Every structure is written in C-alpha cells, then in structure tokens.
Give the backbone structure.
Amino acid sequence: MLSYTTMEYMQALEKAWKDAAELIADKRVSVKFLADEYEIDAENKKVFSVSCNIPAKEHVSLIILHYLIKKIKLGSLPMPTGKWIDFRELKGAEGYYPAFKKRTIETILRKYGERPEELLNAATRFCAKKVQVGDVGIAIEAFKNAPILITLSRADEEFGPDANILFDENIREIFCTEDIVVLTEILVHVL
C-alpha cells in the first residue's frame, strides 16, 4: 500500500494482532467496512469478508484492526462533528500529501472528472449520501462514525475538472495520518 514500508507494515500488522488478541474478549467480532461485514478472528489472526467468505487483504485487515482496537480502547468512537477538514489539516500530513493527492484525488479525477454523475452511481453500493458541495458531492461512511466526503467540480472554459477528499474532523481521534492515507486509497480504488 501507500505509506508503510514492507517491514513497517508487517510490524504494524503483528502489533495490531497482538493488541486485538488482548482486547477482544470472545476472540471473534464483526466490523462493517464500506459495503461489507468483516469477521475478525483474533485467535487465528484472520479477517474474513462475510459476504464473500474470503480472507481480507492484509492492508484491509490492518485498517479494520486499527479501527476495532481504537473503538474498544475508547469504549465508543467519537460521533461525527459535521465539520469537514482537508487532508492537509491532519497532523504530519505535509509529508504524505503529494502521494495522497496522486493516489486518491487524481484517481478520482481520472475515473470521474469528465463524468462526475458516474460517481453517484458508483457510490450506490456504499452507505453514501449526496451532499450539496461542488457539482457532485458524496459522503461515504467508510466505518461507523468515520465518513469521508468526495467532491467533484466539472470543467469550465477556464479550468479543468477538480476533486477533493475531506474528512469529518473526528477522524483525528480514530486513525493516524498513515492509516487515513491507506483508508482513503482503499475507498478510491473500490469506487
């Protein structure tokens, strides 16, 4: 994936499994992520897509584990505030922004920049809500209480199409910046 090196990634995944094993009382729990339900088996270190009955990819497993661990540690996650923030407002985002923009915002522009209404069609599989921002705006609840807003503006005589990805400010309390990069990249690629 985008930001973790292979060694850092494997260490992060191993640590997440260790933390999950200590925190999950019954060793199995389910989490909704995007359009799917995932079962986490902490004892056997496996995350399965319930609808597809296949193991989740490792980067998806890591994001799900980080979300679940935070949820268990906090008791409940902070509710969305309704205040949207730009990626650059996140702690330490300056170093990640060029890669974030290339792998997420530019991907949205390539896929939907010339036909923004297609983004609405693509988002019907997810818990998406149409938002009155730009020409097309959709808020997708990636995880419960973790919405992501994607906006598109059509090209005009002076400027080409434009896109942006915003987060409810509560995301700061749920994920670190690296995880937000990976989470957003996963979302963009399934749209």
In short: The chain has a mean pLDDT of 91. Residues 6-74 form one domain.
